[in-house]
Each structure stands twice: as C-alpha cells, then as structure tokens.
UniProtKB/TrEMBL annotation:
CDD domains: ABC_6TM_LmrA_like. It comes from Streptomyces silvisoli. This is ABC transporter ATP-binding protein. The lineage of its organism: Bacteria, Bacillati, Actinomycetota, Actinomycetes, Kitasatosporales. Keywords: ATP-binding, Membrane, Nucleotide-binding, Transmembrane, Transmembrane helix. GO terms for molecular function: ATP binding. SUPFAM superfamilies: ABC transporter transmembrane region, P-loop containing nucleoside triphosphate hydrolases. It holds the Pfam family ABC_membrane. InterPro entries: AAA+_ATPase, ABC1_TM_dom, ABC1_TM_sf, ABC_transporter-like_ATP-bd, ABC_transporter-like_CS, P-loop_NTPase, Type_1_exporter. Residues 339-573 form the ABC transporter domain. Residues 17-296 form the ABC transmembrane type-1 domain. It is found in: Cell membrane. Its main location: membrane. The chain crosses the membrane at residues 56-75, 153-171. It is a multi-pass membrane protein.
Length: 589
C-alpha cells in the first residue's frame, strides 16, 4: 500500500518534499525550544544574564509559528494539487476504458471513486508523507535529547510508548477494514442514486419512488454503520496515545523528582525532560492518527487502483502514438466499397456468439439497409464498425484499409454514428451540434439543420442555437433529439454514416423528409442504416437481411420480397422471422 501511495504522489513529490522540509524545520525549532527553556532556567538558577537565552527562546517561538504556517499552507496546496491530478487521471482513464470492461461497471460507483475516494486519499497522502515523517522526526529528536539527558528515564518512557503503539496499531488495521466497507458503501449509494435519477420518469411512471428511496436508505444505513464503526475505532486512538503520554509524564515527574532530590539529575534537565514528555504528546498522537489514516485510505487506494487496472483502448494514450496511420490517406476511394466486412465473428461472452461470420459491403455513395429481427446483432455490427469491441475474427475495411492498420481515433473520424436512443449532452444546441466538428461555422450548422428540417423551429427559439437542451436533451422531443443527432453526425463529414433506426422517433412528414435527405446524403458519404420502417427499407439501394449472426440474404427490396420468405415476414411484421421459412407464394404475404 505504501508503494501504491508513493506511485500516486508522482508529479507532486517536489512540493511535497518542500512542505516536508519546512514542516521539519518548524518541528526542529520546536525541539530546540525546551533546550532554550533549559538555558533560561539554568541562567536563572546560576544568576547569569537572561537577555540572550530569553531572546533566543522568543525568536524560536516566532520562527516556529511562521515556518509552521507556511508549511501548513504549502501542504494544503499540495494536497489540493494531488486531488486535481488524481481526478484528472481518473477521468482520463475512465473515458478511455475499453467497452467490454466498461459494460461491467456502474457509472455512479465510478463517480464516487473520482470524488470521495480521491478525497480520502488526499488526507492519507498529507498525513502519510508529511505528518508521519515530521512527527516521527520530532518524536525521535525528543527521544534522542531525552536519552542524552537521562537514559534510564528515557527507556522507561519508551516502554510505555511501545505498549500504546501496539494497541493503536491493532486498532488501525481494524479501521482499515471498516474504511473499505465504508468506501464500497458510498460507491453503492452513488450508483443507486445514479440509477434512480437517470431514469426518474420511469421511476415515477412505475410509482417506484418509495422503493428507490428504501433501497437508497438501506445503502445509506450500511455506509452509516461502517462510518460509525470506523469513527468508534478512530476515537479511541487519540485517548490511547494521550494515556501513554500521560503515563510517561507521571513517570518522568515521579522518578525525575527522586533523581533531582538525590542530586543525580539537575533541575533544568528535569524541566526539559518534562517539556519533552509533554511535547511528545502532539506528535505521537498525530503519528498514530496518521498511521490510522493510511489504513483508512486502503479502501480508497484499492478502489482507485481498480480504475487504473481497467484496460484502455489501444490508441487512447496518444492518438499520435502510431503517427497518422491511414497509410494511404484515402483522398480518393482506393476500393470499390466504402465499407467491407468479411466473415465477422463476435460475441460479448465466449460461449454466446452474436455474429457468426457476417459479410456485407456498402458501396460508395450507396444506401444499404440492415434489417433483421430484434437481437440479431445489428447494433453489435455497428459497435464493431466503430471498433468499440475487437472481433473474434474476420475483417472490417473502410476504403480498402483494414481496421487493424488504422489508428483508432483516425478510424472513428471517418465514421458518423446516429445512435438508436440519440443521447444529447447537457449544454446548448450549438454545443451538441459541434460535438463532432468543433470548428463548424454557423453556416454549416444551419445547412445541417436544414437537412433534418429543424431550421425554422430553431430560428423561432429566443436563444436560437444557444438554447439549452437540458440533461440528456430532456427539453427536446425525441424526434427533435433524433434530428439533432443526425445533423451532428453529418456535420463531421464522415465517409461512412451509420444510422441506427433514424426514423424511429419521427412523424410521417419528417420521416418522408429524412428519407429524401438520406438520398441526397449519398452524394457525400455511404450510408449503412439499421431499418425497421418500410420507408427506409424501400429507399435503400441494397437490403441486407441479418439473422442468426449472418447475412441471410442481400438484394434490393423487391428482390428480397420476391425471394426471401423471412424478409417477407419481416415486412409483414410477422412475429417469427427467425423460425423456418415457408415458401414464398406470389400474392400471399
Ligand atoms: N453490451 C452487451 N453486453 C452483452 N450482451 C449484449 C450487449 N449488447 C448486446 N448484447 C446482446 O447481443 C445480442 C445482439 O444485440 P444487438 O443490440 O446487436 O441486437 P439488434 O439486432 O440491434 O436488436 P434490436 O433490433 O432490438 O436493437 C442480444 O442478444 C443482446 O442481448
């Protein structure tokens, strides 16, 4: 764990070292104070002039206050920088995690890791790197000075301290376990809250508010129990350390008084020993609390390490790591097909293949419709074209370039994708439109909006393109969201446009307009469209019928209708398109 924490301090080690040095300097000044006090007492008892020892004592007090304050500020700032760096690193990693790993995670829990776990680590880091180090130095310095003055007394004190430390160490390990439970419970609360809030309408429509509140309350109670358990253990640390210090103080006072009485110890040395014993209280308590804090951070460290251990996409670290990888930048088509898929095999788990040798091609400037029953693997095909997942085998080429030869970022820059549920991001219409093409001019934005029949509507809005769309586009209708998503995809000028049921949320007028526009779009790019609606299927140049993970039939709408009974059933909205085909009979649907 110390190794992990050390690794986490990367980038902050210099300011941390500076803070440590200053804190040590302040502590060293503190260690010297009893000696200065001794000099004052010695001067007093020997009737020597007091000016110099008193001045030194006052200066030491002032210096400790000033250096200590600056060190504390530096430490706080370093802690905040650490939080900043960690959060940035966690976001950067999470946004690049491979899809198959991401599918298994809970978004709310990830958000907790980036917020609360990082904050817990920050405390551990400051405690660990500076407080433990300085307090250890102060304690050792005091112990050393006491040892010089009276080794016998010192050994007695050490024995008392050792017993206290053993008790506290046992407590710290238990605090660590309670903290892991607490951090996991906080992650669960976050995930539960995210689940309910992201589907608030569903929750309300199903009258499930109270059930969700009950679930969250149960989780909150779990976190409360873990926190109280941890607090109970933590609360015993300071008194245990204080008891050890008090016992040491009483020992020094009793045995020291006897030794002064016997003349074995000067009075000044006893005063200094007592001051050291008192002064040890703070550092020893903080040292022990620091150790407990390190244990408390174990849960958070493990949870953040789990994030870093998630695999990230190949070119995620540096899009330029392999240079501009489109070896022959396709200014002109280098292949007869814009998209070529050959014998693609893939499944989300090894024992459940979804695609079982899919082959299809989308010629340049063509509109190809991908049809098939629900669950046939249409969206999965799109996910593989986008390279969200690695296929088990087979190849995907754009303009003749195999996906494996092209940098991931560059590959995706040639693909436009309109998702099935068209999620918009919180922000303005302009933010959403420019998401794939940040440099798009207003002129281009309006042209893209024209394409999806939204120009007039947006012109009528008081804030126009700067209208806020709400969380996930909640202030727009689903048809408007879909049209914005299409405009956004088109703005990036892709070579290949993938549309997952683009007319699903459109009314007949907008559906007809989009069908015409898809025809026009073919001038600019090839289109592969997952289609359930007849208007889209009929408009396609080629229809690919996907079933059982393969392309069962390919042809024009009329050809498939004539020759493929499964397709005919699909057109008829027959229920079972996956079952065995009955022979097609003219005039019978
Ligand atoms: N992320 C995922 N993890 C595991 N299984 C998945 C995942 N996504 C899809 N599947 C499974 O893969 C199969 C194909 O799903 P896919 O979404 O590709 O079907 P589809 O043809 O697009 O269906 P629809 O027309 O209903 O959208 C389904 O059985 C689905 O349960």
């Amino acid at each position: 764990m110390l190794r992990h924490l050390w690794a986490l301090t990367q980038g902050q080690r210099r300011p941390l070292a500076a803070a440590l040095l200053l804190t040590l300097a302040a502590a060293a000044v503190g260690v010297a104070q009893p000696l200065a006090a001794k000099a004052v007492v010695d001067a007093l008892t020997a009737h020597r002039p007091l000016l110099i020892p008193v001045t030194v004592l006052v200066l030491l007090l002032l210096a400790q206050a000033l250096v200590g304050a600056f060190a504390a500020f530096l430490l706080e700032r370093t802690g905040e920088r650490f939080v900043l760096g960690m959060r940035t690193r966690v976001f950067s990693h999470l946004l690049r995690v491979r899809m198959h790993a991401f599918d298994r995670l809970r978004v709310g829990d990830l958000m907790a890791r980036a917020s609360t776990d990082v904050a817990v680590l920050r405390d551990a880091l400051t405690h660990l790197s500076v407080q433990i180090a300085t307090n250890l130095c102060v304690a050792l310095g005091s112990v050393g000075a006491m040892f010089v003055m009276d080794p016998v007394l010192m050994l007695l004190i050490l024995c008392v301290m050792l017993v206290g430390s053993l008790v506290i160490n046992g407590l710290s390990a238990r605090i660590g376990r309670a903290s892991t439970t607490l951090q996991n419970a906080v992650g669960e609360i976050s995930a539960g809250l995210e689940r309910a809030l992201s589907a608030l309408r569903t929750v309300r429509a199903n009258r499930a508010e109270q059930r969700e509140i009950d679930r969250l309350t149960t989780l909150a109670h779990r976190a409360y129990d873990a926190a109280v358990h941890s607090a109970r253990l933590t609360a015993t640390i300071a008194p245990t350390a204080q008891m050890a210090i008090n016992a040491a103080f009483v020992l020094v006072l009793l045995i020291g008084a006897v030794r002064v009485d016997e003349g074995a110890l000067p009075l000044g040395a006893l005063v200094a020993m007592l001051l050291y014993a008192t002064q040890l209280g703070g550092p020893i308590t903080e040292l022990m609390e620091g150790v407990a804090s390190v244990h408390r951070a174990k849960g958070a460290t493990d949870r953040i390490q789990e994030v870093y251990a998630l695999p990230i996409e190949d070119s995620a670290n540096a899009a330029t790591s392999r240079g501009p990888l489109w070896r022959h930048p396709p200014q002109r088509p280098t292949s007869s097909a814009s998209l070529e898929i050959r014998d693609l095999r893939f499944g989300y788990s090894p024992d459940a293949p979804v695609l079982r040798g899919l082959s299809l091609s989308v010629p340049h400037h063509a509109l190809v419709a991908l049809v098939g029953p629900s669950g046939a693997g249409k969206s999965t095909t799109f996910a593989l074209i986008n390279r969200f997942y690695e296929p088990w085998s087979g190849s995907i080429r754009i303009d003749g370039q195999p996906a494996t030869d092209v940098d991931l970022q560059e590959w995706r820059s040639h693909i436009g994708w309109v998702e099935q549920d068209c999620p918009l991001l919180h922000g303005t219409l302009r933010d959403n439109l420019c998401y794939a093409a940040p440099d798009a001019t207003d002129d281009r934005l309006w042209r893209a909006l024209d394409l999806v029949n939204l120009t007039q509507k947006i012109h009528r809005l008081p804030a126009g393109l700067d209208t806020d769309v709400g969380e996930r586009g909640a202030r727009l209708s689903s048809g408007e969201r879909q049209r914005i998503a299409i405009a956004r995809a088109v703005l990036a000028r892709p070579r290949l446009l993938l549309m997952d049921e683009p007319t699903a949320h459109l009314d007949p007028a907008n559906e007809a307009a989009l069908t015409v526009n898809m025809h026009n779009l073919r001038q600019e790019c090839a289109l592969l469209v997952i289609a359930h609606r007849m208007s889209t299927i009929e408009a396609a140049d080629t229809v690919v019928m996907l079933s059982n993970g393969t392309a069962q039939a390919t042809g024009t709408y009329a050809e498939l209708l004539r020759t493929h009974c499964g397709f005919q059933r699909l057109v008829d909205r027959s229920a079972d398109v996956d079952g065995s085909c009955r022979p097609w009979q003219p005039g019978v649907r």
